[in-house]
């Protein structure tokens, strides 16, 4: 049942959820889209125990089921648990001690299951893949863990080395989508393990189908490479400031700063301005310092005298500035709205100050009670404005995307008639 045909890559869908019922429903939808193997993900096993394997086995008697137990010790006991619950393949950490791997393999032989060794966090994954093959494992999974992916680790380059060194089937996992699955198959992957990009999709069947098409015809998939900055901006385009706030554990949101341009989204890198009540010179000079795609972030601190208005806003268009954030007031709001540049501010008033020239451009400032440094990523939408420190921009963008995907699936389940607390089983997960 768990054979691998070198000409037909296997899609293993990782059911990284918390509830058995949702996992079974999502498994059904992913099989309809062409997924092959069903993995009880580690969070699912931790949440529901081995019973989830039994329920998956009952629901899908003919399918290959993987218990992603990530065994680190007591190999024989845990493999026995997985096998008796109905798994075909049990996952052991490749970084576990050799004694654990050997015991897992011995128990697997006794109970008629296979062992997949997961290389997540292995010190020297290529060398370890050869060692665990010698210890008798049946499959190797080259895996960039979810937290690692968020910081930019990907498993493809390691997998390219591993496939040259081992003779057993090689799986790859770690944030794979239709494009990276195609790349992995071209590079020699026998099994692609896909979690979030299937199970958190609002249309699980369509997402599984897209992966099926890409692994079956990988040469047809167009592979584009983006710079890190473009990648960050592309991801940020697709998420909301609420998603980002969740990803940052509620840090990063500016206080008392609101969109003056309903429906306009803004993404850019900060040019910071420290200025003072009644002085608009530095705010306006910052336009000349800004590059295309920058956001001018101004601390002015007055609700009554604006450092910014219509003429400054129009000047921004000539420089390709992505938007403006003001801790303080803006004026000429009718002109600002006509011009259409995203502007976020505390309020709007008629008064402007004078161009005196106090203050500084591109020093660290505090805006909306958040520290902003030049180059930090600033995102604004109708919810408000968040600042993402530049050092964590990629990670936060990726985490926000995971939040967005999770919500897409929740929306879909609510559309089907459930309430949010039913879908999330809120009562069960209240703090005990
Ligand atoms: O094994 C996994 C992870 O450690 C959480 O248990 C995932 O199933 C694996 O990474 C695949 O999921 P995605 O990375 O979301 O595709």
UniProtKB/TrEMBL annotation:
Coiled-coil regions listed in the entry: none
EC supergroup of this enzyme: lyase
EC number of the protein: 4.1.2.43
Orotidine 5'-phosphate decarboxylase domain mapped to chain residues: 10-211
GO MF annotation list: 3-dehydro-L-gulonate-6-phosphate decarboxylase activity; hexulose-6-phosphate synthase activity; orotidine-5'-phosphate decarboxylase activity
Any single biological process term in GO: L-ascorbic acid catabolic process
UniProt KW Nucleotidyltransferase keyword: no
Record keywords, A-Z: Carbohydrate metabolism, Lyase
Reactions listed under catalytic activity: D-ribulose 5-phosphate + formaldehyde = D-arabino-hex-3-ulose 6-phosphate
InterPro entries documented for this protein: 3-hexulose-6-phosphate_synth, Aldolase_TIM, Bifunct_HPS/DMK_prd, HPS/KGPDC, OMPdeCOase_dom, RibuloseP-bd_barrel, RraA/RraA-like, RraA/RraA-like_sf
Protein name in UniProt: 3-hexulose-6-phosphate synthase
Organism of provenance: Methanolobus vulcani
